[in-house]
């Protein structure tokens, strides 16, 4: 536990860093959009160099890093969020919800060594942008300007979703960040990507048949498949009755049971363009949680070009 003196010191340090960043912005003393595009390209290159890791891409774990470093925000106390990248520090790095994210942090450390001028918060969220865009998802407008915090600024455990819970838990967790039902359902669509691991969350398996391509299949499968509780030694999760190769978590299945959630999930199942539009908007908000507006290097967000788009040009 930190003393009041330590807390005051941490706040003073961060205030100084925030002020320094604001001064850089005011003086235009910041890297250019092209510099950040180079970082994006390096992340994309690393993402695809995954070999046998999971489904052949680091994309899903990089998106999870960006998500979990941003989703600690508390709108009431104005603490947490992507600004200070406090998952670098214990005990936050050891929180159960962050199990396995050392893989992503270590990958991004290599990028940080190549581009030492970028803050961890900017690096991690830019990695999330690259992951979504390079895995066939929508464009995610992004702004630079986050600063690196100190260990005393690490957030308490319990701010990220617990997959074993239900609708009231989701509303409490996401409501604390400032999100409504529609935005909760849109953010849940990130589960189209990646898979669960027994040595991390305890759960096991992918949500969709294409875990490294972002589609609206997550919502389609929720309604089109027959889901049954899996009989195994692990935590409570569902599996599809037909192939028994897919899984859903209790927090996923609640999207088909809760009247308000179901309305939005049905809409996304029927219209991928709508899902992409809403997903992009809510991810932009998620990645900017906790960052004072005076720190942004540009008033308008930037659009980073996909690697394929650059090569075609």
Structural write-up:
- The chain is mainly alpha-helical.
- The protein folds into 2 domains: 186 residues, Peroxidase, domain 1, CATH 1.10.520; 113 residues, Peroxidase, domain 2.
- It has 12 helices and 5 strands.
- The strands form 2 sheets. It has a 3-stranded antiparallel sheet.
- β3 and β4 form a beta hairpin.
- The chain is globular and about 55 Å long.
- It starts with a helix and ends with a helix.
- The mean pLDDT is 93.
- Destroys radicals which are normally produced within the cells and which are toxic to biological systems.
- It is found in: Mitochondrion intermembrane space; Mitochondrion matrix.
- It is an enzyme of class 1 (oxidoreductase).
- It catalyses: 2 Fe(II)-[cytochrome c] + H2O2 + 2 H(+) = 2 Fe(III)-[cytochrome c] + 2 H2O.
- Its main location: mitochondrion.
Please, what is the average pLDDT? 93
Largest sheet, if any?
Answer: 3 strands, antiparallel
Runs in which pLDDT lies below 50 for 5 or more consecutive residues are none
Helical stretch tally:
12
**N to C succession of SSEs:** HHHHHHHEEHEEEHHHH
Q: What would you call the shape?
A: globular
The CATH architecture name of the largest domain reads Orthogonal Bundle
Please list the strands of the largest sheet in the order they lie side by side.
3-4-5
Helix content: 40-55%
Count of all domains = 2
| CATH topology (fold) name of the largest domain | Peroxidase, domain 1
Proportion of beta-strand residues: under 5%
Number of DSSP strand runs: 5
- Please give the CATH class of the largest domain: Mainly Alpha
SS-derived structural category:
mainly alpha
- Radius of gyration, in Å, reads 19 Å
